[in-house]
Structures are given as structure tokens and as C-alpha cells.
Design goal:
CATH class: Alpha Beta
Distance between the termini: 22 Å
Mean pLDDT: 90
Helix content: 10-25%
CATH superfamily: Bira Bifunctional Protein, Domain 2
Shape: globular
Low-confidence stretches: none
Structural class: alpha+beta
CATH topology: BirA Bifunctional Protein, domain 2
Number of domains: 1
């Protein structure tokens, strides 16, 4: 299977969270049944917080915006305007049934896309997310990762800060990590449009796709 069999869609308006989750669940079912193509959905949400399966209520500091249980892995995160959210619905049953490899490859895809803009992003051992140095030289989080897999079809995905209101992150301890700030393209002094980042995602997608098809299938069910 190649990327020509994957449908890309970019939302033209902000998508309410519950609407997005409902659609993802339907797409997951349809992809599993081979009724539709695999799907990459690029969207923005109105301001909101989501909690993952490991969320600690103590890390929700202020309920300034609606709060939703997401069903994905991870802890609390923020979504809002100026943040590119990528919902990735791929059938690992036709690729590599390796959840750890999938998450690692997803992180790599975001890191490769950020490198297009000379952002030296990286993983950080023991910390969830995508990290880089901000203009003060302090390590800061520029992207979040959270996935859910049902019958080997993925959903949820990543969120990358292009130009969000960073003060909106103050209502939570992002991903349970209080000692590091969040950053964005704008905070790094980069004037990048959402469409520019989308093109970077498209150009680096083939490497991500290769990374999730190279390993042998396993028999473990998520």
C-alpha cells in the first residue's frame, strides 16, 4: 500500500472536539471494514483541554475552556486556534502491528517536518512530546503526541504549535510536565503560515509511511 491510497483532508474552519471524535470513530470503523481510504485529517479546534488515559485531575489548574476525556494515551493537553492538529487514521493491520514503532515514527514525522524550518526538534527521554530550544535557550515543548488504536486502526495523532495563544496552556500542566515551558513557531521568531507547515507534513510523509511498514507483524492486539 502506498500514500496514493491515503486521503488527505484539511478543514477550512475550526472543528468542535466532540464532532471530530465522532468522525474519527466512524472513519476508524470504515477503514477497518475497507469501505474508505485511510485518512489524514488536518484541523484546528476552538480553545479546549483534553485529558488522556493517564490524566491526573490535579494537573487541570483552571477550567477556562471546555474539558473533554479523549480516550487517547497521555495526559492533559490544550488545543486551539493557531495549532495544527493532525488526526492520523491508518490501518496498521496492513502495515506493521507494532504500536511502539508507530508512535516513534509519528514523532519522527513531526520532527522531520519541523526540520524543514530549521527547528532542531527532538524526543526527550522520559518526557512525552516534541521538544526544541526556545529563544532563551531553554528546552520547551512545541508538539504533543497522543494516539488511540482500535482493531489496529489508529486515531488521534499530533498537535504542533504554529501561532496559538500560549497563555492558554496555563490552565493545565501540559502532559504532566511543569518544569518546562511550551513554545511555538511564533515564539521562536518564525513567521510560518499553517499552509507552510502542512506542505512540510506532506513532503516528509513518505519517510513516516516507510517507517511503519518495515517491521514484521506481531500477534499482540491493542
Amino acid at each position: 500500500m502506498n500514500d496514493n491510497e491515503i486521503e488527505w483532508e484539511t478543514a477550512e474552519h475550526h472543528i468542535a472536539y466532540l464532532e471530530a471524535v465522532s468522525r474519527m470513530e466512524q472513519l476508524q470503523a470504515d477503514i477497518f471494514a475497507q469501505r474508505v481510504k485511510e485518512h489524514i485529517w488536518l484541523i484546528e479546534h476552538p480553545p479546549l483541554y483534553t485529558g488522556g488515559t493517564s490524566s491526573d485531575p490535579a494537573e487541570l489548574l483552571h477550567q477556562n475552556f471546555p474539558v473533554y476525556d479523549s480516550g487517547r494515551g497521555g495526559r492533559y493537553t490544550y488545543h486551539g486556534p493557531g495549532q495544527r492538529v493532525g488526526y492520523v487514521m491508518l490501518n496498521l493491520g496492513k502495515r506493521s502491528k507494532d504500536v511502539r514503532n508507530y508512535v516513534h515514527a509519528l514523532e519522527g514525522w513531526v520532527i522531520d517536518s519541523l526540520a524543514t524550518f530549521d527547528i532542531k526538534a527532538r524526543r526527550a527521554e522520559g518526557r512525552i512530546g516534541i521538544w526544541c530550544d526556545n529563544r532563551d535557550g531553554k528546552e520547551a515543548k512545541i508538539g504533543a503526541i497522543g494516539v488511540r488504536i482500535k482493531r489496529w486502526v489508529t486515531s488521534h495523532g499530533f498537535a504542533v504549535n504554529i501561532d496559538p495563544d500560549l497563555s492558554h496552556f496555563n490552565g493545565i500542566i501540559p502532559c504532566g510536565i511543569a518544569e518546562y515551558p511550551v513554545t511555538s513557531f511564533k515564539d521562536l521568531g518564525l513567521n510560518v503560515h499553517m499552509e507552510d507547515f502542512d506542505q512540510a507534513l506532506i513532503s516528509t510523509f513518505p519517510s513516516f509511511l516507510s517507517a511503519i511498514t518495515i517491521k514484521d507483524h506481531t500477534d499482540n492486539n491493542p
